[in-house]
Amino acid sequence: MSDATPHIAQKGPFAVEVEAGKRYLWCACGRSRTQPFCDGSHKDTAFSPVTYVAEQSGTVYFCGCKHSGHKPLCDGTHNTL
After folding, report:
1. Is 81 within 8 Å of 8 (Cβ atoms)?
2. How many angstroms separate the CA atoms of 21 and 67, rounded?
3. Number of folded domains in the chain?
4. I need a labelling partner for 58 at 20 to 30 A (CA). Which of 2, 3, 49, 74 fits?
């Protein structure tokens, strides 16, 4: 994997129960062992985690392929990979 291309963690979203007002750091590089969240594995790459603050509590679908046009949320891009 080049430093400019994210690793596909999975070809589909991660369904996560979030809490209103809580901050989440989504892994943008695909290297994290705590998917879909950042564990610092992006060090020495061009990637940085994306901050997501939940507006309301409930299920959120975080992008697993790391290619979404609506990062950090899934937009179905994984269907074209």
Report:
1. yes
2. 25
3. 1
4. 49
The whole domain housing 43 covers 1-81
Span 9-26, mean pLDDT? 98
> Which tokens hold the place of 18?
């979030």
Contacts (Cβ under 8 Å, ≥6 apart) of 25? 37, 38, 49, 50, 51, 52
pLDDT at position 66: 98
56 has a pLDDT exceeding 80? yes
User: CB–CB of 38/17 below 8 Å?
Assistant: no
**What pLDDT sits at residue 44?**
87
Instruction: Report the pLDDT value the prediction gives residue 2, as an integer from 0 to 100.
Output: 54
Peptide bond connecting 36 to the previous residue in cis, omega within 30 degrees of 0: yes
The model carries a pTM of: 0.92
Coil vs helix vs strand at 77? helix
Strand pairing of 14-18 and 58-62? antiparallel
